[in-house]
Amino acid sequence: MALGLTLALEAATSACLPESPWATDVPECTRTAGAALEQEEDGLPVIHLYVAQSLPDDDDYRPARVFFRGRCYAIRARYRGETSQAFPKRSFTLDFDDGQTLDAPLLAGGLSGRRKVALISPFNDNSYIRTRLTFTLWSMMSSEHLQVKAFSAVVYLDGQYHGLFTVVDHVDRHSLAAQGMDPEGELFKAVDKSANFSQWDEVGRLKSTLHQGYEKKEGDPKKGDQAYASIEQLTAFVANAPPERFRAERGAWMRVEDYEDWWMLAHLAALSDSVTKNAYHFRAQGPTGSWRYIPWDTDASFGQDWNTLRRAPRPMATFPEENRLFARMMEDPAIRQPLRERFHTLLHTSLHRDVVQGLIDTYAAEVDRAARRDEALWGEAYRHFPRWSRRADINGFEGEVSYIHSWVDAHWDLLEEELR
Question: Model-level pTM?
């Protein structure tokens, strides 16, 4: 990674200009610095990211600066994402200093006041739109959902063009508070497939603790015996409650629609890697706090796995085997039948295939020029990446968008047939 300020940064106002290259000291920054830098390219907003030192591979942050929409932000940055750690083009987390927030009121339906955002690398998504498409469908399913807002942007790293990224809400107490949630509530992230609401882990062994598979991200206590008590209680209820009790009391434990809609979203987009892991679960403080679900990490969707392997439309009976909560809903006819009917209705209204195909066209047109430029820079590295370099079915941007169009048509046919 290049160090120091380049000519692009030298064009910025002196408020952010250091006396020497960035080796150790971080220059001062004001909100109005960087006005001379590009604010839009290829029809998309531009983010200029400067990092004072090479980023480590662990979770450590390094001092950084972001120039966006003519303003300069003091931040800390780190690499993020277990899968993307191996990519030549990696993802980042941007953590804004106290008193500073990212404000983009005209993007993603209004992304303002954000203390943290993620820059998601689409290195394993040649369509460049899967993440945005999935989060948009989640929002369209219900206005009551906790949303994850996202937009596409061109990124320059240390003054050099670095490609097309997806800017995504960082799910934390700040983004939740912006949606009216309790900022002191508990937030857990499901980080592996043992976060399956069962007494048994992903390979069928009895769990040592019922919070296996989770990391606590927000809320007190952070550590100790009580840190995971609430998620363990929820897991125990889902895993062990008799059918009548599960049906009668689940509404007291969780916002039922959130978790039923998770089941629908998983089947709608074929979220093969987000059926147990890659999910957030939030609960407000107090005995009446209900659990809420928030989707995350949706690149394994719409016809591809996490490593870009092609996935044909799959029968709907597969996912309950992985997630005990899904299985409980499907085992009870009093839950299953209304849920399937509601899913069928959505497929003919807000989630109609024509709506989804229109979104694909809209997003693909929006990123078209940026995607082709990104492909010119990273395409060779993608084609020779060891995880998929021997495959013969790799698409470029245009071919991958066409593939998603065809996949949606075939998948919607299957869903409508099964829900009839």
Answer: 0.91
